[in-house]
């Protein structure tokens, strides 16, 4: 039973977290509000959160039906982000399972070498990657972004740490029943790892969606641009129109919100599971 002191501490913590949440959500609410306004009303102070006069239709048309092919750019980002996320999850989960539950010579050495590669910044590998992509004939294609994004040492490490907490007795029991590594991986390990897989999926999708450096270097044709590069086109065409820029920004984050809403249940259950284990 909670004491009075614990109740007060809990109330204070809740109030502080609520205030902090409002602080973080404030820019998002202002962006959504500005997307509905006329340009002259965007910077008006005090802020008119619910605009009395809206220009939503014109702002929407400027984003989706004018000079910048935002619809095609949107499709490009969705395609690349989904494919990269799926392939990255597939490769990272299999690699993590191998490093955790398979016994082979040099396993720890190979894993240590992979971890050592994490200290190398992406910028240091731009030139070798550029030369490799040109040699493979993938320059100025989405295949270049997919190839570079489908491998992740960080997510392999994260998944390995989670899988290491799964008891080997479960896999041994499955082995006695005749299950091989493929069956154990798909029927036992993956269901047990759903929370961390959902977390990795959200992070990977966001990273891929927001990636600016790789599309900037490896894409040249505007019809292949992703959303981060497409936003630069809006910046060039609508530098002085903040309302249209906010409409484009709101449109750009919608898929991220959808992915989080769809997968948040698994993430929350993972946090609760971690709390119980602790």
From TrEMBL:
Determine the domain of life of the protein's source: Bacteria
Keyword Electron transport, does the record have it? no
Q: One GO CC term of this entry?
A: plasma membrane
State the CDD domains in the record: TM_PBP2 (cd06261)
Q: Does the keyword Cytoplasm apply?
A: no
Q: How does it sit in the membrane?
A: Multi-pass membrane protein
A single GO BP: transmembrane transport
Location of the protein in the cell: Cell membrane
Record-annotated ABC transmembrane type-1 domain positions: 74-263
Membrane-spanning residues:
12-33, 73-97, 109-131, 143-163, 184-207, 243-263
Keywords, comma-separated and alphabetical: Cell membrane, Membrane, Transmembrane, Transmembrane helix, Transport
In the record, the note on similarity to other proteins reads:
Belongs to the binding-protein-dependent transport system permease family.
What protein am I looking at? Answer: Carbohydrate ABC transporter permease
């Amino acid at each position: 039973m909670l004491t009075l002191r614990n109740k007060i501490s809990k109330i204070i913590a809740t109030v502080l977290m609520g205030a902090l949440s409002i602080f973080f959500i404030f820019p998002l609410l202002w962006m959504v509000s500005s997307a509905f306004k006329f340009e002259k009303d965007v910077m008006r102070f005090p802020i008119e959160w619910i605009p009395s006069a809206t220009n939503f239709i014109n702002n929407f048309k400027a984003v989706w039906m004018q000079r910048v092919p935002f619809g095609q750019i949107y499709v490009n980002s969705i395609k690349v982000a989904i494919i990269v996320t799926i392939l990255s999850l597939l490769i990272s989960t299999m690699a993590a399972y191998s490093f955790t539950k398979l016994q082979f010579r040099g396993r720890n050495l190979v894993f240590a070498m992979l971890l050592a590669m994490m200290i190398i910044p992406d910028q240091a590998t731009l030139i070798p990657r550029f030369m490799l992509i040109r040699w493979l004939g993938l320059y100025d294609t989405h295949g270049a972004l997919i190839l570079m994004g489908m491998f992740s040492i960080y997510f392999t490490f994260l998944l390995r740490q989670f899988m290491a907490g799964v008891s080997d007795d479960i896999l041994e029991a499955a082995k006695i029943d005749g299950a091989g590594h493929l069956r154990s991986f798909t029927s036992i390990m993956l269901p047990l790892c759903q929370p961390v897989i959902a977390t990795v999926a959200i992070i990977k999708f966001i990273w891929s969606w927001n990636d600016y450096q790789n599309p900037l270097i490896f894409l040249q044709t505007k019809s292949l641009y992703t959303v981060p590069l497409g936003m630069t086109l809006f910046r060039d065409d609508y530098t002085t129109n903040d309302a249209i820029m906010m409409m484009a920004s709101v449109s750009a984050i919608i898929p991220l919100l959808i992915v989080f809403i769809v997968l948040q249940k698994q993430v929350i259950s993972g946090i609760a599971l971690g709390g119980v284990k602790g």
